[in-house]
C-alpha cells in the first residue's frame, strides 16, 4: 500500500510534527513532498503531495495561508505542513485550523528547529522504500491477472516474502469512471487532463482507504482506465451491501460516476485471469444498463454471458436490426417510439394495462401501437418465438453502447 500521512507522522525522527486539523483524512496517500515557494500552489501540484510552507521565500499572512489551503483542497493534496517559529510564520492562524478541519485537510505544524533537510530526507527515504515494495507487489499481481508469469511457484514464493495473501478465495471488482468524454467537451484539454488526473488520484486514495479495514487486503491495481480490486470472498469485503456502500461513497465524493463489475469467486491466484475477465464483462453490462448503485454481479448476468462471449459483434448487430429495425421511423421526432413500446410491453409480461401505465399513455393508444408493431414486423406478439427474439434484442439494446440505427438495406 501507499505511505499515508498518518504513517509519516509516525516516522522515527519526526515526533515533533503536530497534527492541528484534518484527522479524519490521515489515511490519505502521499505521492511526494513539495516545498511551496510561490504565492499559490495550484499551478505546481497534481494531487497527493504533502505541501510544506516555510514563509522564507514569500510572505505568508493569514490570507495567503487560507488561499494555499483552499488551492490544496481543490487540487487534492495529501496535507499541508506549516513551519512555525519566531522569524517567519510565528503561529498558525485559527481561521486556517478551522478551514482545514472543515475541509478534512490534514494540517501539520513543524517547528523550525526541525530542519527541512531532515524531514524531506526521512520522508523521501520512506517513500522510496515503500514505492519499491509497492511496485514489487503490483508486479506480482499484474502477472497473475494477465496469466503471464514464467513460474507460478516462484510468484507464490515472492508473494510470501512480500506478505501478499494470495491463496484464499477472492472476488475481483473492475471499476471505471464514466463521463470522461463530457469532461473534455466542457473544458480545455489542459484543464480537462488536470481534473481527470485529480479525480483518478482521489478515486485511488478512496479505494485504498476503503480496503484498509478489510481482511487480507491487496493493493488496488490500475490498468489503463480500469481500477481492479482483489477482495477476500466474504460479506464484509464483496457483499452487495458493502460494494453498494462503496459506490455510494464514490458518488458523493467524486464528480464522475463510477461503475463496478464483480466476478464470481476465484479459488486461488491461478484463477485471477478468468475472474478479471468476468469482472470486466459485468462492468460492461453495468455501464450499459446503469443499474441503481452502478454495480453488476457476473453471477447474475444469465444469458448476457452468452452474448458477451460472441466474438463477432456484427452477428449481434445484425440480429438486433433483423428483429427491431423494421420498427424504426427514421426522420421522425421519436424514431424509436415503437421499440420503446415493445420494450415496456415485454417488461410488463405482456400486460397491456401496466405497459400503458408505464408509458403514460391511454390503453387505446397502446393497442394502436401494438397493431403497428405487428404490421411492420410481420410478427404476432402472441408468438412465443417472436417474444423471445424481441426480448433478447431489447436486452442487447439496453446493454450495448451502440445505438439502434436505421435497418440495413
Q: Quick check: average pLDDT?
A: 89
| Global shape | elongated
Amino- and carboxy-terminal Cα gap: 56 Å
* Strand count: 10
Number of domains: 3
- Classify the secondary structure makeup into a structural class: alpha/beta
Which CATH class of the largest domain applies here? Alpha Beta
- The radius of gyration over CA amounts to 27 Å
N-to-C order of helices and strands = HEEEHEHEHHEHHEEHHEHEHHHHHH
CATH architectural designation of the largest domain: 2-Layer Sandwich
Quickly count the helices. 16
Please mark out the parts with pLDDT under 50 across 5 or more consecutive residues, or reply none: 401-409
Helical percentage: 40-55%
Biggest β-sheet: strands ordered side by side in the sheet: 1-5-4-3-2
Major sheet: size, sense and barrel closure? 5 strands, mixed
Superfamily (CATH H level) name of the largest domain: Reverse transcriptase/Diguanylate cyclase domain
For this structure, the CATH topology of the largest domain is Alpha-Beta Plaits
Strand content: 5-15%
In short:
This protein is α/β, with parallel strands linked by helices and 409 residues long. Helices cover 50% and strands 12% of the residues.
Write structural notes for this entry.
The chain has three domains: 5-124, HprK N-terminal domain-like (Udp-n-acetylmuramoylalanyl-d-glutamate--2,6- Diaminopimelate Ligase, Chain: A, domain 1, 3-Layer(aba) Sandwich); 165-305, 2-Layer Sandwich (Alpha-Beta Plaits); 310-399, Arc Repressor Mutant, subunit A (Orthogonal Bundle). It is 50% helix and 12% strand. The protein has helices at residues 5-9, 62-75, 94-103, 116-146, 152-161, 180-186, 189-211, 235-238, 240-253, 272-289, 304-308, 313-324, 337-347, 352-359, 363-377, 384-399; strands spanning 18-21, 32-36, 49-53, 79-84, 107-111, 170-177, 221-223, 226-232, 258-262, 295-297. It has a five-stranded mixed β-sheet. Strands 7-8-6-9-10 form a five-stranded mixed β-sheet, with helices on both faces. Helix 2 (62-75) runs parallel beside helix 3, helix 13 (337-347) packs across helix 14 and helix 13 packs across helix 16. The protein is elongated, with a radius of gyration of 27 Å. The termini are far apart.
Amino acid at each position: 500500500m501507499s505511505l499515508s500521512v498518518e504513517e509519516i507522522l509516525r516516522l522515527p525522527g519526526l515526533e515533533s510534527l503536530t497534527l492541528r486539523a484534518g484527522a479524519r483524512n490521515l489515511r490519505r496517500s502521499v505521492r511526494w513532498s513539495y516545498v511551496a515557494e510561490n504565492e499559490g500552489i495550484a499551478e505546481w501540484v497534481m494531487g497527493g503531495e504533502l505541501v510544506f510552507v516555510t514563509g522564507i521565500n514569500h510572505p505568508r499572512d493569514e490570507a495567503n495561508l487560507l488561499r494555499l489551503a483552499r488551492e490544496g483542497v481543490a487540487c487534492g493534496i495529501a496535507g499541508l505542513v506549516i513551519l512555525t517559529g519566531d522569524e517567519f510564520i510565528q503561529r498558525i492562524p485559527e481561521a486556517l485550523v478551522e478551514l482545514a478541519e472543515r475541509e478534512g485537510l490534514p494540517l501539520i505544524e513543524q517547528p523550525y528547529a526541525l530542519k527541512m533537510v531532515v524531514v524531506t530526507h526521512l520522508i523521501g527515504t520512506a517513500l522510496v522504500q515503500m514505492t519499491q515494495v509497492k511496485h514489487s507487489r503490483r508486479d506480482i499481481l499484474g502477472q497473475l491477472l494477465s496469466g503471464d508469469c514464467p513460474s507460478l511457484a516462484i510468484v507464490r514464493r515472492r508473494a510470501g516474502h512480500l506478505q501478499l495473501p494470495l491463496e484464499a478465495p477472492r472476488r475481483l471488482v473492475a471499476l471505471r469512471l464514466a463521463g470522461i468524454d463530457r469532461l473534455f467537451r466542457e473544458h480545455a484539454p489542459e484543464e480537462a487532463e488536470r481534473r481527470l488526473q485529480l479525480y483518478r488520484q482521489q478515486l485511488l486514495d478512496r479505494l485504498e482507504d476503503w480496503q484498509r479495514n478489510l481482511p487480507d487486503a491487496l493493493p488496488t491495481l490500475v490498468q489503463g482506465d480500469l481500477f481492479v480490486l482483489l477482495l477476500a470472498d466474504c460479506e464484509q469485503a464483496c457483499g452487495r451491501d458493502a460494494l453498494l456502500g462503496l459506490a455510494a461513497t464514490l458518488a458523493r465524493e467524486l464528480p464522475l460516476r463510477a461503475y463496478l463489475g464483480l466476478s464470481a469467486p476465484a479459488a486461488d491466484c491461478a484463477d485471477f485471469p478468468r475472474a478479471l475477465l468476468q469482472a470486466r464483462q459485468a462492468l460492461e453490462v453495468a455501464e450499459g444498463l446503469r443499474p441503481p448503485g452502478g454495480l453488476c454481479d457476473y453471477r447474475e448476468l444469465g444469458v448476457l454471458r452468452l452474448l458477451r462471449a460472441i466474438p463477432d459483434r456484427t452477428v449481434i448487430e445484425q440480429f438486433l436490426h433483423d428483429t427491431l429495425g423494421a420498427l424504426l421511423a427514421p426522420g421522425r421526432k421519436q424514431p424509436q417510439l415503437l421499440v420503446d413500446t415493445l420494450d415496456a410491453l415485454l417488461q410488463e409480461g405482456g400486460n397491456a394495462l401496466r405497459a400503458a401505465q408505464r408509458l403514460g399513455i391511454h390503453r387505446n393508444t397502446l393497442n394502436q401501437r401494438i397493431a403497428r408493431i405487428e404490421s411492420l414486423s410481420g410478427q404476432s406478439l402472441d408468438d412465443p418465438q417472436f417474444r423471445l427474439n424481441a426480448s433478447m434484442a431489447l436486452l442487447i439494446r439496453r446493454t450495448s453502447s451502440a445505438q439502434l440505427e436505421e435497418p440495413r438495406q
